Amino acid sequence: MGYDFKSAEKKWQDKWEEAGVFHAEDCSEKPKFYGLVEFPYPSGAGMHVGHIKAYSGLEVVSRKRRMQGYNVLFPIGFDAYGLPTENYAIKTGIHPRKVTDMNIEKFSSQLKRVGFSFDWTRVIDTTQENYYKWTQWIFLKMFEKGLAFRDKTLVNYCPSCKVVLSNEDSQGGKCDICHSDIVQKSKDVWYLRITEYADKLLEGLNGLDYLPNVILQQKNWIGKSTGAFVDFDVKGSDDEKLRIYTTRPDTLFGVTFMVIAPEHPIIDKYADRIANMDAVEGYRKECAKKTEFERTQLVKDKTGVRIDGLSGINPVNGKEIPIYISDYVMMGYGTGAIMAVPAHDERDYDFAKKFGIDIIEVLKGGDIEKEAYTGEGEHVNSEFLNGLNKADAIEKIIEFLAEKGIGEKGVQYKMKDWAFNRQRYWGEPIPIVHCEHCGMVAVPYEELPLKLPKVENFAPGSDGESPLAKIDSYVNCTCPKCGAPAKRETDTMPQWAGSSWYYLRYIDPNNDKAFADREKLNYWGRVDWYNGGMEHVTRHMIYSRFWHKFLYDLGEVPYDEPYAKRTAQGLILGPDGEKMSKSKGNVVDPNEVVDEYGADVLRTYVLFMGDYEKAAPWSKSSVKGCKRFIDRVWGLQDILVDGDTYSKELESSIHKTIKKVTEDIENMKFNTAIAAMMTLLNVIYDNGKINKAELKAFITILNPFAPHVTEEMWEKNNFGGMLANGKWVDFDEAKCVDDEIEIVVQINGKVKTKLMVAADIEADEAIAIAKADEVIAAAIAGKNVVKELYVKGRLVNIVAK
């Protein structure tokens, strides 16, 4: 009788749940393994096949670890605050709370249907009060330490979503949520001072088992550079200086102009000296319409206005140089002013050519009449730096700057402080009160959580104000410090807040006295293995590493990094090879695959379709191939015979396959592990029979991939207990080595035949066997053998003339 996946899968999912097979045990004496997948945002569309692939990698690892005797924590939860739910709620009129609950219920049923071995007793939801109480608690700790602060700045504002976005959430000048164009707007904004932790975040990468590309992306995101701060005098002002930062202070003799941000305060300070203030103001208004992305693009027309009435003095040679304003210089980056060396910077070169500014070569090697030279070279036209290389020149110029009191060595970071608020309803309330007498005051810890009020109208205001600002009963309060009338902060936290510490809450999800018990934190330690998408290795991972390091500095967690290992899965593309999207009509619904083929086929296919870390297109024919594989595994019972040890015919193949699968799982080479089991299956069928010991071994190593069919076979053959609680099978290294190997025989470098020989054969014997072969004997007959060579385990080569 064939395998009935529809009844077997539900049966085993219920049995696992009833037996609590996947429930992690706190403070067990077993060795622990904490495997973490990125918890999903529960959208109304439900899961897609990308979720299945994302979770299946560590699902296999976690099932294997349990069978190896580990106490495994493999949890799941929901990152449920955010704009998509709120936008849907506004569109449909259904409250975000109800939308979220419906979506979580849908996701949960889908995840269970695929048979993931999550510990469902530890589910977290970032929108629940017993969770965001501790998100608020961590925020207040940062506020106490000066790491949470407010500042007025130009922000990225999405007119469609009516929300302020961080640079990270508005890359490309587009809103991450609705993809509308971003505009610039002046606003008071909450920030987290992540820059204070820039060096710790960089140093912490040492010794972590992250993919090389993950480490590179984090380093580039933080963007540490070493250089010098240099002060340029402003002509006609005794004490006014424009401070710049440069990574190439050795090129100071080539500075022929300066550029400052249109928002630079020096413009307003000296407005009465600027003859072309109308032109300057007109340009400033144009810049205010542009997003930061538009302003900083390298490939665009160079625009700007020379400030008539202000000029700078080059501090190393005393030359007067013009000052321009241009949109590509931002007040929020560096000092809001730059020095320009057009001979050796492409953007400065284009700008100088457009505005007719001098170009002075200070590095040999190019032709500055044609283009900027951006390579290395000997210094020229640089007085005391002439003839020096880059390293020596930088060292000498920094000594000079320090000696003259006009600059010093410095460090800058590309990463900026984290914009940490949204003007929307569906987010964690920021627990701050604004008092006319006391300023900003923290909500007392004992009053947490500051609850999100239940409202009917949760649409944002047209002015970009939070919907909470309309609720007088929420806004109006008393100051916790002086008791005077005060007003609550009405902005909410961004969607990244809850995901910055969720891995800690899994350790102790129901604790109402702390975010997690210290003893449990000590036991579970850092996450052993974290897998997720490459799109989250900068924003989410850097944010969560920052929060964790902050908690470590407070003494709240016992280890300084949250994740010991980080891997990533590739995308599943549509059958057309394009990224899946509803508009393209190439989305594959995992429910349909489970309905037609069963969960084990889906699980096996998403790991067999290619290298786990790379993108691969969906192939229905390959899905059918995995279905045939599962059916053939079930069919092994038709050729089953007694036997409690491996047979001579299959022993070597079984040991080799166990070794291959064991090692490939650890290296996330799931596709080759499955291929090895498919090969073994063919060997078994060629053999015509399989005994019980061999069947037990085979379905044990297949179990992490296809747990339902293997459980059913385990029970049907009375192997005892539940396979999910079984023991992983060992391999004997000695039995993984072939007694015989195949070698090729060449004559004058050309392959003539192949022979099977003993694996440990000596050279003389291998050559003798080769020469005795009929094909080789005939080929060298009557010829003079000049040379004979045996390359162990590979070939015999005979040179004959």
Number of strands: 30
SS summary, helix count: 26
Largest sheet, strands/sense/barrel: 7 strands, mixed
* Class from secondary-structure proportions: alpha/beta
Percent strand: 15-25%
Q: Overall mean pLDDT score?
A: 93
Notes on the structure:
This protein has 801 residues and is of the alpha/beta class. It contains 26 helices and 30 strands. Strands 9, 10, 11, 12, 13, 14 and 15 form a seven-stranded mixed sheet that branches. A five-stranded parallel sheet has the order 2-1-21-22-8. The model has no long low-confidence stretch (mean pLDDT 93).
Question: Summary?
Answer:
The protein is α/β, with parallel strands linked by helices.
Q: Which secondary structure elements does this structure contain, and how are they paired or packed?
A:
Blueprint: H1 5-19, E1 32-37, H2 49-67, E2 71-73, E3 77-78, H3 83-92, H4 96-114, E4 124-125, H5 129-144, E5 148-158, E6 163-165, E7 183-192, H6 198-203, E8 209-210, H7 212-222, E9 224-234, E10 241-246, E11 257-260, H8 265-269, H9 277-288, H10 292-296, E12 305-313, E13 320-325, E14 337-340, H11 346-355, H12 390-404, E15 407-413, E16 418-419, E17 432-435, E18 439-442, H13 472-475, E19 476-478, E20 485-488, H14 496-499, H15 502-505, H16 518-524, E21 529-532, H17 539-554, E22 565-568, E23 572-573, H18 590-597, H19 599-608, E24 616-617, H20 620-635, E25 640-641, H21 651-666, H22 670-687, E26 690-691, H23 692-702, H24 707-716, E27 740-747, E28 750-758, H25 763-772, H26 774-780, E29 785-791, E30 795-800
Parallel strand pairs: 1-2, 1-21, 3-4, 8-22, 11-13, 21-22, 23-24, 25-26, 27-30
Antiparallel strand pairs: 5-6, 5-7, 7-16, 9-10, 9-12, 9-15, 11-14, 12-13, 17-18, 17-20, 19-20, 27-28, 29-30
